[in-house]
Write a structure and sequence with these properties.
By secondary structure, the protein is an all-beta fold. The protein has no helices and 32 strands. Helix content is 0%, strand content 45%. The model has no long low-confidence stretch (mean pLDDT 93).
Length: 422
């Protein structure tokens, strides 16, 4: 699993009159152009039975403003950043949508979302700007054990050409679980929420931010530690952990079920207890790093806390990888189809190691050996010499064997491009 670098201080804190308790926040962050950042997040009112969707914007994703939208009246004034009433909401800028009035899509509602026309639903809606003129308001009611009270988020998956909605289920056996539904056309009437990842009553899966990364799916899963109570430094933590799958609705498993992808801060910090990752991680065009925003909390899930916006940064393509076993120095791939005469890898090399790659045929016979890497690389081509010998093998099945020159050396291989898993 990749190592994120967290900014020590929050990007903003709860400082508006309406932000009585940002609570989980369920942030949605997007970058629409070089200097236009947008964010939607939630807050509870006096109790979380009444919630509001709030808006913030930025020119760099670091300094955020909470503008007066003049949309929603709160305590006799519209000078606030409230978009509408409702909770657990996902907002998505659908660049595939050809109808400008439907560009921004909303999903969720727990409590229900209430619109200007008096309609209150747990469901979906569309808008030209994510702020006003909400239209095509539809309720959805997936079969039990689905339950809407979480961050219901969605995205359009180019690989399968489906909308993917991540929601939640609830059972007496395991408490909160992760559910996913799909739709070809954003009509959810016939869709089903399928359970894809299960927790336990002690470690419940609160919500998941699902996204496509290369040819797999990743999920930042919020894991609620329900066994530690509401008092003390270890009480009521919500962890941000990482899961993955090759298929949207099947085969989800943990990258690491015990260690946090975004670690909690030390006691006394703004994110000492709570982490709720934002939808979606953002890859920076400038340097290839990934920004993962999150709402951090300084107290237990079910106790007193304040919430603030945090930022974790991950180096390019380093969400998760493979490395040798404790006593080993070699990793061998599954069967692969070579799709290009150039293979590019992202690799971290430690302890002055030399790491090299072998191409094996279907019988396991070594065909070619690359020149070694003695330092970490990103999207770097394997070098097999002056005359690239891979041209005749394109379309063939191969195996990759990765070696560390000495058993004590250590590496993590994150991505391999130019091959496809059979």
């Amino acid at each position: 699993m990749g190592i994120v670098k967290k900014m020590k201080d929050p990007l903003f804190v709860q400082d508006q009159e309406v932000e009585v308790r940002i609570d989980n926040g369920y942030p949605n962050v997007m970058r629409n152009g070089k200097n236009r950042w947008q964010m939607w997040y939630g807050t509870c009112s006096e109790t979380c039975a009444e919630q509001y969707l709030l808006y913030a914007n930025s020119t760099d994703g670091l300094i955020w403003e909470k503008p007066d939208l003049n949309i929603f009246e709160f305590k006799g004034s519209k000078k606030n950043n409230i978009v509408l009433k409702g909770g657990g909401l996902g907002i998505y800028n659908d660049v595939h949508e050809t109808n400008a009035s439907r560009r921004y899509k909303m999903s969720g509602g727990a409590p229900d979302v209430c619109f200007d026309d008096g309609t209150c639903v747990s469901g979906t809606a569309m808008s030209p700007d994510g702020l006003t003129n909400w239209n095509n308001i539809e309720s959805f009611d997936f079969a039990k054990p689905w339950r809407a009270d979480c961050h219901t988020n969605l995205f359009y998956d180019d690989m399968t050409q489906k909308y993917v909605m991540t929601t939640r289920e609830f059972t007496s056996e395991s408490g909160r679980d992760i559910g996913i539904a799909t739709s070809d056309d954003f009509n959810w009437t016939e869709s089903k929420s399928l359970s894809v990842l299960n927790g336990t009553l002690e470690y419940q899966l609160y919500s998941q931010i699902t996204f496509r990364f290369l040819d797999i799916l990743l999920g930042i899963v919020m894991v609620y530690d329900a066994q530690t109570g509401t008092v003390g430094p270890n009480a009521g933590h919500v962890h941000c952990r990482l899961a993955w799958s090759r298929d949207i609705s099947n085969g989800w498993s943990w990258v690491d079920s015990k260690n946090d992808f975004i670690p909690a801060g030390p006691l006394g910090s703004f994110d000492s207890h709570i982490c709720f990752a934002a939808h979606l991680p953002i890859e920076m065009d400038e340097d290839g790093t990934h920004r993962i925003y999150y709402m951090g909390g300084n107290g237990p899930h079910s106790g007193a806390r304040n919430s603030s916006l945090g930022l974790a940064i991950l180096d390019r393509n380093r969400f998760a990888g493979v490395s040798p076993s404790t006593n080993g120095s070699t990793v061998v791939s599954k069967a692969l189809t070579l799709t290009s005469s150039t293979i590019r890898v992202t690799l971290d090399v430690f302890d002055e190691s030399n790491v090299y790659f072998e191409i094996l045929n279907v019988s396991g016979v070594s065909l070619f050996t690359s020149k070694p890497f003695d330092s970490s690389v990103t999207d770097s081509a394997l070098d097999f010499g002056d005359d690239n010998p891979l041209d005749p093998l394109v379309g063939s099945m191969i195996y990759l064997r990765v070696h560390s020159a000495r058993r004590s050396d250590y590496f993590v291989l994150y991505t391999v491009e130019g091959v496809q898993v059979n």
